[in-house]
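Recap from last week: sequence in, structure out.
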Amino acid sequence: MSEKKPLRVVIPGGNGHVGTLIAAHFHDKGDDVVVLSRSAIANPWRMVRWDGLTPGSWASELENADVVINLAGRSVDCRYTPPNRKAILDSRTNSTRVIGEVIRSLTHPPRIWMNMSTATIYRHALDRPMDEFTGEIGGGEPDVPAAWRFSYEVARRWELEFFTANTPRTRRIALRSAMVMHTDRGGIFDTLLRLVRCGLGGAAASGQQFVSWIHSLDFLCAVEFLIEHGELTGAINVASPNPIPNREFMAELRAAWGTRIGWPSSRWMLEVGAFLLRTESELILKSRRVVPGRLSAAGFSFLFPQWRAAAQQLVALRRAGPPFRRISLEKAV
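Predicted structure tokens:
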């Protein structure tokens, strides 16, 4: 058998937790990885400056690339003040727009363009799962809180910018990703585990709201799967097939860590805490019951379909100590 040719992978906005995870994965496989970033951070892969707004010398990195994975966007972990709202929306739509313009201008454009999206695009769902076939896009409900309505607007406009880009020679996939659970410091798993270790990892408000999540290894496997399966285009839910209510989610995490006590938080406590931490309670209170309809239909197999096993494995890795960043797919299970 002929040896597989290394990929050329370009990751705009790849300095965050998910970007570093993807870059490390492809770099460790021997692929040629380039991260486009506004700031230089020491890493084994190449870093190229860009502003996320205008074409520049960085555009040549996309010529003959196999895969572009755009993760650019200001963090939503903040208060939704008018300036922050503008930064959140503009950073996503502007970066997507300029990447589309550059791809259209290239002689040999990338084969695949993946653009990060979000599972938050679906409505607050307690009643049934949301897949790509029958899931309902949120924002039209009469009682939607203003902060949630803004999140829906960002998600819709982000995908609209992506899917209206004129790139006929490049296959496009919007990654409607759930929270990616990984052991890196500062990530969502680290934040949740810190609450558990402090005895605060109980149910949030009613605890009935669903948590959509995906283990980092399954996220990486899904990206690989989407690269290899040329028939898959459009919006793809990248999430575990088994979202569970917040109450059960936190109980499983406490059990994995070995903590019996987890004080619950009422809604008003969450609102006050979110205000003091300069973030929004939507990140905890909105029910995200998202499932991977298209991945499952295409035959994708999850390493960690259930949260209990995922939490146990992540906790074991965390207890083993640093380095946390790189986890080999071959050694995962």
